[in-house]
Amino acid sequence: MLISICRAVVTCLPLLWLASVTDGVPDPAKRELLMREETFRQTGGGVALTAAEQKLDAHLRGLKEKEMAAAQFPPAMHFFKAKPLIQKSPIFKLLQQMPKGGALHVHSSSLVSVEWLVKNVTYRPHCYICFTWDNSVRFLFSDRQPFPRWDCFYWQLLETLRAKIGDAAGFDNSLIQHLTLVTVDPDGEYPSQDVVWEKFEKVFIATAGLITHAPVLREYLYKGLAELHLDNVMYLELRSGLSRTYELDGTVHDKAWILKTFQEVTKKFKAGHPDFLGARIIISVHRALEVPAVKAAVKEAIQLQKEFPDVVAGFDLVGREDSGRNLWYFREALSLPADLGVTLPYFFHAGETDSEGTDVDQNILDALLFNTTRIGHGYALAHHPLAKEMSRKRNVAVELCPISNQVLKLVSDLRNHPAAVLMSEGHPMVISSDDPSLFGTTGLSYDFYEAFVGIGGLKANLGTLKELSVNSIRYSSLPAHLKEAGYAMWKRKWDAFISAHS
Ligand SMILES: *[C@@H]1O[C@H](CO)[C@@H](O)[C@H](O)[C@H]1NC(C)=O
Ligand SMILES: *[C@@H]1O[C@H](CO)[C@@H](O)[C@H](O)[C@H]1NC(C)=O
Ligand SMILES: [Zn+2]
């Protein structure tokens, strides 16, 4: 016993002596260097800021520190509760002013604020409504009493129903509830992913009758571009199934008609807003379909892209991945372009799941095997090292939609979003909104806020914002010359933004 203590003292003494000389403290200069090296790797870490940008960056940092120290931190809360706080945030107000480039992941059925659909569209003449057995609604514009359908027995003219009910505001609010996920009690109302997805799919079906009415569709698309433009977004890649669109007399238009209409609306909007770059469509079909139907859809998409090369960007499969068929299931359909020797760019949703190691989780790697141009969500990418490496090497950007991931219950506190890892490594990435009308957002500012303040934390700076904005042009489907024009347009806006806020 005694011996061992003596031995300990003997061996420890020289060490203690050494420690007192160097203090045991690592070299501060080396520490500084490592920190700078690490920051350099993050999204926007390599962006050199001008003096004016540095001034705004310091201001933003101060604001962020204040928000992080406050009793309630919006990114840690459910978006439906955080929204009023975010609206008051001076960072959010700056983000609204900031030119954000393009929105590359938005679905057509949820492009425009629900308020407009209810307060404007449902007040038009010839609008019929029907309440379904599963507590949902259907709408239909018709010049005569619509026939009963399997899901809809009794159609009522909305004008007559409103007159009968009297309480127009209350009734309109109930309609709004049918067309969005927004609620004051998200945790109570949506206890699980299954429940929130069920409502999600219901909303899409309910909205369809309103926005597939041909005259409404034109105004809807125009309004969608206007809402983005108002939020300083200058470009859109819209995922759309090109659903059958109808006239008052029941005439139905085909997909080519919808693409032509989309082209006309975009042209008209650009004529009135020369600082808007444009809009394209990613044709998408539901992953609930069988292989032959997806095969037909791929063939059709190839044809439509030939007819509308400026409008059609490519193809995607939509719908909940966890309960839907995975990409590998559709391999025969998805290999069709390669087999035919034609190109049809893919923009697959992949890895929008918490279920690590499942077939669904595998979508990430399969999307890359099918040469996807970008990855929708890529929520699971952070724990697929090989897929991550491939996606980085091939410049396949992840479309990060933070609010969507939170509302659809993949993550609750956005500080824990796996994209924090991707951001810290500077993985190719863009920010988007997925389904703005369902989540009660408009434009991209809300999602930029969550990514910048919540996911990026204090590390994310003005360089991060700049890179994320430029990325939306860099990783868009636009041909090189339009990317250049788009970048020049964005740069003018950016410089004006900086000089107005520094
Ligand atoms: C409905 O919306 C259209 C398109 O935005 C607009 O021109 C019209 O004035 C609106 N009507 C009403 C009653 O708000
Ligand atoms: C993906 O790209 C590689 C390399 O260009 C090509 O060999 C392969 O056929 C493509 N696969 C598909 C499914 O398009
Ligand atoms: Zn999506």
TrEMBL record:
Superkingdom, natural source: Eukaryota
EC number(s) given by UniProt: 3.5.4.4
Keyword Transferase appears in the UniProt entry: no
Cellular compartments annotated: Secreted
Cleaved signal peptide residues: 1-24
Limits of the Adenosine/AMP deaminase N-terminal domain: 30-95
Membrane-spanning segments: none
GO molecular function annotations of the record: adenosine deaminase activity; metal ion binding
Primary localization class, coarse: secreted
Gene3D superfamilies in the cross-refs: Metal-dependent hydrolases
Gene Ontology biological process terms from the UniProt entry: adenosine catabolic process; blood vessel endothelial cell differentiation; inosine biosynthetic process; neutrophil differentiation
GO CC annotation, single: extracellular space
Classification via PANTHER family: ADENOSINE DEAMINASE
Protein family: Belongs to the metallo-dependent hydrolases superfamily. Adenosine and AMP deaminases family. ADGF subfamily.
Protein name: adenosine deaminase
